[in-house]
């Protein structure tokens, strides 16, 4: 007869269970994500312990790598079994496992997450960061809240946990030495107030690691259906870094290449991964793979496809970058981690700093996510500006041709990035040839030193722009004017307003005033054009008094159709222009 010890959940745990089972997650199926992520954490811990050279006080787990299942070791993997007849779902991992005492403190209490305690302990031993280049565990494990495990009770009437701790079983032949001996432990609960602990019957095989058996609620039998479970796994856990087998078949095929050192990922791998994340069949136009640890931990792998779909009238694209925390999906196609204009970018962002917890349900509320968006946007813009500088042809002919619209949208909507984005734009100007593109920086570098403004003219075509009466003054004074041919560009200029401290002025605005030619008086003098007209070299100009009389006649005649009539020196062959009111 097996002795069962009946234990009580800590008071907070009971409350939490109540919340979790009834209302915490809007989406039930995330329980699987939680349990798979625990399994993955447990495997990660084991891998880390090995890399750090031993488990606990003993030397039970050798450094040897048994991922391939060779050498008599148990491979590092996650096995999921569905049993429709019994209406159970079992998640097994071959990770660190738990001793009886660990089961009590990790699953019976929530005040202190087991993962958190583990990290503390590792810090104590000062071995957390010695384990090579990428060390996810040393930088903090997912989950600062310890809610995850209890989500199993959203779908199950009863949960059994069978566990055998890696540190105590002496699988390398070194022997145990732990006070629990090498026994496997069974933890059982119906998620109400209590749980029981007992020695696992010897006829139930339990390798190193943990099995979580969910006795599903009768009305939720879909979770013992293989294809349903497969769908959920594909959705949330495809990039888990350990193999996942569902009823013996491998489900996750893609490795988490975004976590690898960018230098080690070749083009072929990028090509495959790109196709996977984007659901597209072209090759990426550009790849942005980086890691940063300040202001927060980020590992990102993003792609710019060779084309975007909005131009085919297929409607607005959804965001294309998914958010992960240590390989576990937090939010597919997250609308929060990048500004909207970046929706053409496809890929994955992984941050260990993101707690895999309640807050994942609403990433948009998180200050962390805000920080992340800022950091990512800055990276993307700097990636583009590097391309613009170093690979100008590609930038102009491939990227800009396809995506300029998105940059312009950003200028109009993403005020944080507006100025940085404006540097990525190109325009035709009055000086260049048709099709010759100039950036605002280039424009400014060619401006005469005394010129404080940037001029642009909106016209349907280059010919019409060049013939426009608005151009007369600019041509005369040899001032370069940016031509914009679409309402969008016109809108961009109006939104941008300034560039590097210079005003962007439409050539049809009344405040535009120009000297007769280069080197004349500064054009900054915006008032008193009428008075200055006496100085016109043609000799045909009106006197100040005549001009005033003429203007007043004009104004009376046109009455409400104009707000003001004044003389100007900007025209040479056209008698008059209509200008926009300075509002
Ligand atoms: P978190 O993962 O955020 O710490 P959970 O509620 O998901 O919180 O899990 C609580 C703790 O239980 C974990 O920190 C871990 O110590 C332990 N645990 C849960 N599942 C496993 C597992 N499969 N193997 C080993 N330990 C586990
Ligand atoms: Mg967890």
TrEMBL record:
Keywords from the named record: ATP-binding, Chaperone, Mitochondrion, Nucleotide-binding, Transit peptide
Keyword Transmembrane helix (UniProt): no
Binding site for ATP: 34, 38, 93, 98, 106, 113-114, 210, 360
Primary location recorded for the protein, binned into one broad class: mitochondrion
Stretches for region Disordered: 510-541
A GO molecular function held by the record: ATP binding
Compartmental location: Mitochondrion
Record-level GO cellular component terms: intracellular organelle lumen; mitochondrion
Transmembrane stretches, start-end: none
Keyword hit for Oxidoreductase: no
Composition-biased stretches (Basic and acidic residues): 525-535
Family as reported in the entry's similarity comment: Belongs to the heat shock protein 90 family.
Protein name, entry field: Histidine kinase/HSP90-like ATPase domain-containing protein
Organism expressing this protein natively: Stephanodiscus triporus
Residues shown, of full length: 113 to 695 of 820
């Amino acid at each position: 007869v097996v002795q069962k010890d009946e234990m009580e959940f800590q008071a907070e745990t009971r409350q939490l269970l109540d919340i979790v089972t009834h209302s915490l997650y809007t989406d039930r199926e995330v329980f699987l994500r939680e349990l798979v992520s625990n399994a993955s954490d447990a495997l990660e811990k084991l891998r880390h312990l090995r890399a750090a050279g031993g488990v606990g006080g003993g030397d039970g787990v050798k450094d040897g790598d048994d991922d391939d299942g060779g050498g008599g070791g148990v491979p590092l993997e996650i096995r999921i079994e569905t049993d429709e007849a019994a209406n159970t779902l079992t998640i097994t991992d071959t990770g660190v496992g738990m001793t009886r005492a660990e089961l009590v403190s990790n699953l019976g209490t929530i005040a202190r997450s087991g993962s958190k305690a583990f990290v503390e302990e590792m810090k104590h031993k000062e071995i957390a960061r010695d384990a090579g280049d990428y060390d996810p565990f040393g930088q903090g494990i997912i989950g600062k809240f310890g809610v995850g495990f209890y989500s199993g009770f959203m779908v199950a009437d009863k949960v059994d946990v069978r566990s055998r701790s890696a540190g105590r079983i002496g699988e390398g032949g070194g022997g145990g030495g732990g006070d629990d001996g090498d026994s496997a432990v069974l933890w059982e609960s119906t998620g109400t107030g209590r749980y029981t602990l007992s020695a696992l019957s010897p006829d139930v095989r339990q390798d190193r690691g943990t099995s979580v058996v969910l006795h599903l609620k009768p009305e939720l039998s879909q979770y013992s259906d293989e294809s349903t479970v497969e769908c959920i796994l594909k959705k949330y856990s495809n990039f888990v870094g350990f193999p996942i087998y569902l009823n013996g078949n491998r489900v996750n095929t893609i490795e988490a290449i975004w976590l690898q050192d960018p230098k080690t990922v070749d083009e072929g791998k990028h090509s495959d991964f790109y196709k996977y994340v984007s659901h597209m069949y072209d090759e990426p136009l550009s790849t942005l793979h980086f890691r940063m640890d300040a202001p927060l931990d980020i590992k990102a792998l993003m792609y710019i496809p060779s084309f975007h779909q909005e131009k085919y009238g297929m409607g607005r694209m959804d965001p294309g970058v998914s958010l992960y925390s240590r390989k576990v999906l937090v939010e597919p196609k997250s609308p929060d981690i990048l500004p909207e204009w970046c929706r053409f970018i496809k890929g994955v962002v992984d941050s260990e700093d993101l707690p895999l917890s309640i807050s994942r349900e609403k990433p948009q509320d998180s200050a962390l996510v805000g920080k992340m968006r800022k950091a990512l946007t800055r990276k993307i813009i700097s990636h583009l500006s590097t391309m613009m500088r170093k690979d100008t042809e590609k930038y102009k002919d491939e990227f800009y041709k396809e995506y300029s619209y998105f940059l312009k949208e950003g200028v109009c909507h993403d005020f944080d990035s507006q100025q940085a984005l404006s540097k990525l734009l190109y325009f035709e100007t009055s000086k260049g040839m048709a099709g010759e593109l100039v950036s605002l920086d280039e424009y400014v570098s060619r401006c005469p030193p005394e010129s404080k403004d940037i001029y642009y003219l909106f016209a349907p075509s280059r010919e019409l722009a060049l013939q426009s009466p608005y151009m007369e003054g600019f041509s005369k004074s040899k001032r370069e004017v940016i031509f914009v041919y679409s309402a969008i560009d016109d809108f961009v200029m109006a939104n941008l307003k300034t560039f590097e401290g210079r005003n962007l002025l439409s050539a049809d605005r009344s405040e535009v005033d120009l000297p007769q030619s280069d080197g004349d008086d500064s054009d900054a003098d915006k008032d008193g054009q009428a008075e200055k007209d006496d100085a016109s070299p043609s000799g045909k100009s009106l006197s100040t008094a005549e001009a005033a009389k003429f203007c007043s006649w004009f104004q009376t005649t046109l009455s409400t159709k104009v707000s003001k009539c004044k003389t100007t020196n900007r025209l040479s062959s056209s008698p008059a222009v209509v200008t926009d009111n300075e509002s």
